[in-house]
Structure formats: structure tokens, C-alpha cells
From TrEMBL:
<keyword id="KW-0413">Isomerase</keyword>
<feature type="region of interest" description="Disordered">
    <location>
        <begin position="158"/>
        <end position="182"/>
    </location>
</feature>
<keyword id="KW-0697">Rotamase</keyword>
<dbReference type="Pfam" id="PF00160">
    <property type="entry name" value="Pro_isomerase"/>
</dbReference>
<dbReference type="InterPro" id="IPR002130">
    <property type="entry name" value="Cyclophilin-type_PPIase_dom"/>
</dbReference>
<dbReference type="InterPro" id="IPR044666">
    <property type="entry name" value="Cyclophilin_A-like"/>
</dbReference>
<feature type="domain" description="PPIase cyclophilin-type">
    <location>
        <begin position="39"/>
        <end position="176"/>
    </location>
</feature>
<protein>
    <recommendedName>
        <fullName>Peptidyl-prolyl cis-trans isomerase</fullName>
        <ecNumber>5.2.1.8</ecNumber>
    </recommendedName>
</protein>
<dbReference type="InterPro" id="IPR029000">
    <property type="entry name" value="Cyclophilin-like_dom_sf"/>
</dbReference>
<feature type="signal peptide">
    <location>
        <begin position="1"/>
        <end position="21"/>
    </location>
</feature>
<keyword id="KW-0732">Signal</keyword>
<comment type="similarity">
    <text>Belongs to the cyclophilin-type PPIase family.</text>
</comment>
<comment type="function">
    <text>PPIases accelerate the folding of proteins. It catalyzes the cis-trans isomerization of proline imidic peptide bonds in oligopeptides.</text>
</comment>
<feature type="compositionally biased region" description="Basic and acidic residues">
    <location>
        <begin position="158"/>
        <end position="171"/>
    </location>
</feature>
<dbReference type="GO" id="GO:0003755">
    <property type="term" value="F:peptidyl-prolyl cis-trans isomerase activity"/>
</dbReference>
């Protein structure tokens, strides 16, 4: 999948929002700790940008929904996507969310909801931008940002066939927890 095919069309209300860099100090109730095979990643959730998405993500995290789920789509220089329990990119939790598009930029480290062509099709899949991806702005729901551990996100590997024909990867989420619950 290339960047152009990742962009979906559709209309949704755009809400002006502060830039990601203007976020307040960490709040344990709105901070996620993502454990990967290479280390921990801290994600600041943004209920001021996407309150319904943040609430749903926290609900799924508290159910341990994301533990063991693979990064089924990793595009070098673009993004790493996870959140599908089937590992195919076609599954989810079964609860669709209405888009909460804002002016928050899809820059390196932004965490945003994946969706299909329909703006209101976000479910449990989300992605972390590996590079600035401003062509996604106002078309996807930014609900968080990586505040530490981006070097671990950069090491997420996608599945590929080794010389022996076995699949090496893809990487999985070891665990995902709300900081307040740890």
C-alpha cells in the first residue's frame, strides 16, 4: 500500500485544535505504556482532540485487547499499524467510532485511528506515524502522540520470508497499559 492509496475520501467536520506540541504535562489516566520486544513506548493520549476515541482505546486497553496483536501493516518511512485481532487488517473490536477530525498534524510520533473509505469506520486499529505525513491531516483522527521510546517504534518489523521460508515477524504488542493502572 502506498501513501496515495492510504488516503480515504469522505467529508467530516474538522475541529480546530491546538498543535500536538502544545500538550499539557503527562496525566497517568491519559498515558499509555506500550511494551514492544525492544522496549517501552510512552503515548500521551489526547482527549482534548478525540474524547470518544481515547475513551474507547482505554476501554480496549483495560480489557487487554491489544496484548499479542501484531503490527500487520508497516510501511518504512510512513507508519506502523496494529489493532486487528485477526492480523489481516480486516478485523476489529466490532464497535465503529464517528470521526473526530481536527487540525492536529500527522507528524512523526502522532498516533491516529485507522479507517476504511468511510470517515466513521474507525474501530480498534490505529497507527503511529514513522515520519511526518501531513497528507493525512484532517482525514484521520489523531488521538495521541509518542512522547518517549520512538526508537523502539522505529524498530518494529513487518513479516517477511527468510531464506528458510519461515515468517520472521511481524512484531507484536507485548502489552499495552494505561499508566494509572500500573
Amino acid at each position: 500500500m502506498d501513501r496515495r492509496s492510504f488516503i480515504a475520501t469522505g467529508a467530516a467536520a474538522i475541529v480546530a485544535a491546538p498543535a500536538l506540541a502544545q500538550t499539557p504535562a503527562a496525566d497517568p489516566e491519559n498515558t499509555l505504556v506500550l511494551t514492544l520486544r525492544t522496549g517501552q513506548v510512552v503515548i500521551r493520549m489526547r482527549p482534548d482532540l478525540a474524547p470518544r476515541h481515547v475513551a474507547r482505546i482505554k476501554e480496549l486497553v483495560r480489557q487487554k485487547f491489544y496484548d499479542g496483536i501484531v503490527f500487520h501493516r508497516v510501511i518504512d518511512g510512513f507508519m506502523a499499524q496494529t489493532g486487528d485481532p485477526t492480523g489481516t487488517g480486516m478485523g476489529g473490536s466490532g464497535t465503529k467510532l464517528a470521526a473526530e477530525f481536527t487540525a492536529a498534524p500527522h507528524r512523526r510520533g502522532a498516533v491516529s485511528m485507522a479507517r476504511s473509505q468511510s470517515p466513521n469506520s474507525g474501530d480498534s486499529q490505529w497507527f503511529i506515524c514513522l515520519a511526518d505525513s501531513n497528507f493525512l491531516d484532517r482525514q484521520y483522527t489523531v488521538w495521541g502522540e509518542v512522547v518517549s521510546g520512538m526508537e523502539h517504534v522505529d524498530q518494529i518489523k513487518k513479516g517477511n520470508k527468510s531464506d528458510g521460508g519461515k515468517v520472521d515477524g511481524p512484531d507484536k504488542i507485548v502489552s499495552l497499559r494505561v499508566q494509572a493502572d500500573r
